[in-house]
Every structure is written in structure tokens, then in C-alpha cells.
Amino acid sequence: MSEAPDWTRLPDLACRAVGGSVAWANDELFAERENLIRKPEPEYRTYTFGHKGQVYDGWETRRRRELGEDHAIVRLGLPGVIQGVVVDTAFFKGNYPPFASVEATAAKGYPAPDELTDWETVVPKSPLGGDRKHYFEVSADRRYTHVRLTIYPDGGVARLRVFGRPVVDPDLIVPDALDLAALENGASITGCSDMFYGSPANLIAPGQAALMGEGWETARRRDDGNDWVEVELAAPGVIRLAELDTSHFKGNAPGWASIRGRNARTGAEFDVLPRTRLQPDTRHRFRIDQDVETTHARLDIYPDGGMARLRLFGGLTSDGLRVITQRYQDFS
User: Fold this and answer.
1) How many domains would you assign to the chain?
2) Per the database record, which ranges form the Allantoicase domain (predicted)?
């Protein structure tokens, strides 16, 4: 498959940027396992040699002289339901593995790699080519916390992407105080006016943006309109505090912003934050004085520009807690 499937627009559950980690690999002599989950696309610099040969932006094992295969275990930064996997052999042309498979498991707590059990195959042993992305749709319908990449018999893989939908464990949240717009809690982007310079999904990603490219930024408008993005909250809740973060956006932050809430069940729409002036490169926090159940929130920026993060802190309603709990049970 040459064109990226629709599921690649979902969050990468394994990425280092959302807290993923390559917990173990049986071999990484030529290139470190941590490269597998780096967010940037792989790079290659010709004639860049270290003590072990050409330096590759990926995971590369030594040449096997006996039967067997190589493995790497990734702890997902966002446990969830896997929709698809990308095995990218970019720049590995004469040293890529001819086959690979992916297994997954669900674990409670924080087990060591050798304590993980009950692996289930989500991508069967499949042929690979060199210097290309391989797309594998996954039909497993349950929540996973770890994946194991196996390459046969050895070689190099630049990136492993694990796309899916995060599913939070209700035992690990405080229902009365959480970020209702957080990707890690199950929120998602349902629409936006423009994403020329950056994905709106960055707005609800974990952690703080380290640079401007980790936020959402639109093209410059040449009309009388304004840009917007809509978030489906993790579950129905009441918003108590809004954070609009323009960090790193110094000459291209919006001049103003507003937030409009919606309850999809009743159809009601209401103001959460009126049109408010923003400053560049600043984390703005606003107390929200309302007590309305909200399922969706629309952020409008005026007229255009970039935002690093959007946080909507509050509490789940009784229905919201039921939704979070049922979602976890459905995929466990």
C-alpha cells in the first residue's frame, strides 16, 4: 500500500512524545532501540560512521549466525485499542529484515519486560521491503498496554508506529478533577477549519509543547473569517478551568480566542469562555463560572495563528463516569 490509510490520522499510541518507551530489545548493536518510537520522520546522513559502522536513525541488530529472530518490546504511552501498525524501514536498503510480526498484551501496573505474558498476534509474520513504510490494519478489538515487534531473522527498522484510540483506566483518574480535553483520557478532535502548519491533535497531546512545531497552527487568513477546532471531550463533564497555551508562538499567536460548549445529547449550545484577548508565548488560565454538562467544546481563534495546548479541567458528571467505565470494560 502506497497511500497512508485513514487510521494513520489517529494518535500514535507508542510515540515517545506521548510517553511511550522501548522497554527492552534482545540486541541493538548497530542502532539504539529508542529510535523506533521517535516522533520525527527518519533521517539519513551519508558517510556518517561511528565505531560500529554507518549511523542509522532506527533500530538495527547484528547479523545472525544462528537460528532465531530479534525482538523489541514497546510500552505504549497511551494504552488503547490498536487500529493499525506501520513498520518503516526507511533508509535500510541492504540491511532490512525480510519479515516482521507484531504482538500485543494488556498488563496491570508496571511490570518488567520479562514479566509480560499472554501475547496476542495483531500483525502476523509478514514480508517487508527495504526503505519503505508498511501499513498493517489491525482488527483486534481490545485495549493493550504493550507491543512486541519481532523481525526475522535480523536487520534494521527505522520506526514503529502504533495508531489507535486511547482508553483510560478509570481507576487511574480522579473523576472530580481531570482534563476533559486530554487525549490520554479519551478526548479527540472532531473537526477544524485549517491545519496547514500543524495538526489540531497536538492541542490535546500530553505534556507541554517543546517548540512551535508541536502545536496547532493555521495558514494566514486573507478574509473576514476566523479559524476554529472542535474537541469531543473524554466523557460528559463540567468545565471549571480553561487553559489556552500560546507558548512558542511569538509572532503568530491569535489575537483573541473564545470557547463554545455543546451537549450532544440535548443539543444545547452555550458560552464557556467569551472572546478574550491573548498574549504571545503565554499560558493563559481562566476560571469558568458555569455548571452545564458538556460533551463537545469548540475553540475559536481570531483571526488565525497557532496554539500550543488546550486544557479543559473539570469533573465528570455521573453519566460521564459511566461512559469512561463502560469504555474500559468494553475493551478489557
Assistant:
1) 2
2) 19-166, 186-315
d(CA 304, CA 301): 6
Which residues lie closer than 8 Å to 110 by C-beta, 6 or more apart? none
Q: 158 with 214, same domain?
A: no
Residue 141 C-beta-side C-alpha neighbours within 13 Å = 3
Length of the chain measured in residues: 332
Residue type, 230: E
pLDDT in tens, 202-218: 999 999 999 999 999 99
- Residue 141's contacts (CB-CB under 8 Å, 6 or more residues apart) are 81, 331
Indicate the DSSP class of residue 252: S
Do 17 and 161 lie in one domain? The reply is yes
Q: Which residue has the cell 540486541?
A: 27
- Would strands 53-54 and 156-157 be described as parallel, antiparallel, or unpaired? unpaired
> Both 14 and 29 in a single domain?
yes
Q: Read off the CATH number of the domain in which 226 is found.
A: 2.60.120.260
* Domain match, 157 and 218 both: no
Model pLDDT for residues 239-252, shown as the tens digit of each residue: 999 999 999 999 99
CA-derived radius of gyration, the chain: 22
Indicate whether 181 belongs to any domain: yes
C-alpha cell at 108: 496491570
DSSP output for 6-23: GGGGS-BTT-GGGT-EEE
3 state DSSP class of 98: coil
Q: Are residues 155 and 176 in the same domain?
A: no
Tell me the one-letter amino acid at 34: E
Is residue 296 situated within a structural domain? yes
DSSP strand pairing (120-127 vs 133-137): unpaired
Q: Which domain holds residue 53?
A: 6-166
Are residues 64 and 129 located together in one domain of the fold?
Answer: yes
In the predicted model, is pLDDT for residue 1 greater than 70?
no
CB-CB contact of 220 with 288 (8 Å): no
State the amino acid at position 324 in one-letter form.
I
Enclosing H/E stretch for 21: strand 21-25
